[in-house]
Amino acid sequence: MDWRRFSFIGIIIILLFGVVVLIGGEQISPLIIISSMLATTLSVATPLTLGALSGIFCERAGVVNIGIEGMMLAAAFFGWLASIYMNSIFEYSPAISLTIGVLAAILTGGLFALLHAWLSITFKVDQIIGGTVINILAIGVTGFLNRQLFFDKGSIFGGNVPHAPGLLPTLSKALTVLCSGAQGCGGLPSLIAGTIFDQKPVAISAILLVIVANYVLFNTRWGLRTRAVGEHPKAADTVGIDVRRVRYINVVIGGMLAGLAGAYFTIESVPSFEPLMTNGRGFIALAAMIFGNWTPFGAWAAALVFGASQALQINLQFFRESIPPAWAFLQQSYVVGLAPYILTMLILTGVIGKTTPPAADGQPYEK
Amino acid sequence: MKKLYAVFAVLLVAALLLPACGASGTPDCSKPETFCVGLVTDVGKIDDKSFNQSAWEGVKQAEKDLGAVVQYIETTDAKDYAKNISTFAEAQYDVIVTVGFGLGEATTAAAQQYPGTKFIGVDQFQAAVTPGVAGLNFPEDQAGFLVGALAAQMSKSGKIGGVFGTDAVPPVWRFGEGYRAGAQYINPNIEIFIVYHSDVGFDKTFSDPEWGAATAKSMIEKGADIVFGGGGKTGNGAVIGAVEAGALGIGVDTDQYYTLPEAQKGLLSSAMKLITPGVFDLVKMAKDGAFPDGNFFGKAAYAPYHDLDSQVPAEVKAKMEEINKALLDGSLATNVSPVKP
């Protein structure tokens, strides 16, 4: 893999963390700052990581998917809706309702992806337009249903709206329950306990999925076929690979990953849905995918840079008074907010090595 | 392929017909006996559980109590402000409520263009009087001061946090800095983490609950045990995130005990601006022909403690009433500048 890219990303993240430790280290112990920033980084990066993986599966098979944003949004809504209905109408326990919610979100992502696959593979619609259709459709459907179900049914101030069963628990809570047994778990180092184990199931599975995706793409027959179809579909077809089938399946897998990212918003982060709540993260995920040169680990690292710069932006404001006058520009939080976009542009212009998309990316396959 | 075109054609025709159905049966606002009130939201939704919705509740009260014909338009893009306002003005609505600081310029411009219409600008401070425009303002700094004082008294760790929308919007700035001033009034050495979501545009700063929750959680990791969330859905996310992480939350604008059921178990209070009665009062004045041009000041308050009532000591409750009284009669000032310097 591309060591230059990874060391560049590593240095950036260390720099971002270092700035906060330098500024706030006297007020609050550096260990707490680092562990808290790591926790923010990991959770903020979750939807970006999953969204980027979604893009990788689609584009490695040769289908451009800019509808990730819409898939996330729709999944966030329908997953949340399912969890509410399971809890308040069918009266399942919160744990079961939330699990069903996550599954519903994944299913929603998959169905929207199926629509994208149908448009772009079967009908050979321009894939950028297909993705735009998904985005607009998701905004309309979720906004409309949200209004119909939760607002027009009398005022929310009347308080008769069923509410969400809560949120997925953090892993550390689950660990505390497990460890309350006879031996306990021994002192887990606080840094790890406060960051990795303070994450919730979707965030943990995002990390695991990065490893799985990398293995599938580069070490299995399916991965080889996927890449073949994305690089040179004609050659793949000649040796007997069903190009359309491989593309369909990969796009749907991608959609399911975007669906899991949607679950992060309404089932893991906050127990409520807001119209447009994905706020462009599906597009940042695409940037992370390109940044990472269409590889799972690269995209993950890029997502972590975005997460780290958000952690920086939040944390710098805590210590606003301690920022030395020479660095006064850091007090403007929008300056810091720009960091990931400037980085993306640097990467895209090829400063740290070239990015190469799959050769047949975006081209419909004609026999 | 032909079939697909046919399906699209049918869908397109259906889409064209839909809005036409909605428009039928609208009462004619040009008649003097029909009293029509229109509301234009800021970029955001009418069901935002805070700002737009509270103003809309005031308009709906006018529907109930004054027999007004009411309607709203949701703004989806800041460049549509003027267009949305003139939609109502052209239909000869009697009163148009525009919600939010962002609509200020469009509102005064529309008032000059449509002199027969009364405009109520929520959160729009009128530097100069424009005939036909009443700016409904609130002392957010006092509301923030109250909950800041409450947070400082209730915090066990001596660290409190606040998550806000962009400080470029003066009412948000007043909430945030009022909170800081109130906390420092009780305990000058208190550690306060205040974060404004100023790194994104106006279209996102109030609608980012996930960012709010992540920010609140980061404050709690650094020891804060009370978080004030002030900024539409971003603030809602912060309050829910704080309560979920075991800290206490403080809501904003309305008594959020009723609008954030997810946070009820840990909602200490809310910094309220009484928007609903303020809007209703102004609509009523317009109907009675006693419309005040210029600035009109609503009231600030702090919400009841609800589920946490038994955990708030009697001396804290007494102190809060004392501060509230002092703020109202002017013997205590928040010393917060009205806009970010």
The quaternary structure here is: heterodimer
Output the CATH topology of chain A: ABC transporter involved in vitamin B12 uptake, BtuC
Unreliable runs of chain A, pLDDT <50, ≥5 residues? Answer: 153-160
The general outline of chain B is globular
**SSE string of chain A:** HHHHHHHHHHHHHH
Spatial strand arrangement across the major sheet of chain B: 2-1-3-4-5-11
By CATH, the topology of the largest domain in chain B is Rossmann fold
Supply the helix-strand structural class of chain A. mainly alpha
Gist?
Chain A is mostly helical and 367 residues long. Chain A has helices spanning 3-24, 30-60, 68-88, 94-122, 127-150, 171-179, 190-195, 201-219, 221-231, 233-238, 243-269, 281-291, 296-318, 333-348. The longest helix of chain A has 31 residues, at 30-60.
What features would you describe in this structure?
The complex is a heterodimer of chains A (367) and B (341). Chain A is built from 14 helices and no strands. Chain A is mainly alpha-helical. Chain A has a single domain, classed as ABC transporter involved in vitamin B12 uptake, BtuC (Orthogonal Bundle). The two termini of chain A are 34 Å apart. Chain B is of the alpha/beta class and 341 residues long. Chain B has two domains: 32-138 and 277-285 and 291-297, Rossmann fold (3-Layer(aba) Sandwich), CATH 3.40.50; 140-272 and 305-329, Rossmann fold (3-Layer(aba) Sandwich), CATH 3.40.50.2300. Chain B has eleven helices and twelve strands. Chain B has helices spanning 2-23, 51-66, 81-90, 104-113, 140-154, 170-186, 202-205, 209-221, 232-244, 275-288, 314-329, and strands at residues 36-43, 69-75, 95-99, 118-122, 133-137, 159-164, 191-196, 226-230, 248-253, 267-273, 294-297, 300-302. In chain B, strands 2-1-3-4-5-11 form a six-stranded parallel β-sheet, sandwiched between helices. In chain B, strands 7-6-8-9-10-12 form a six-stranded mixed β-sheet, sandwiched between helices. In chain B, helix 2 (51-66) packs across helix 10 and helix 5 runs antiparallel to helix 11 (314-329). The longest helix of chain B is centred in the N-terminal third of the chain and has 22 residues, at 2-23. The termini of chain B are far apart.
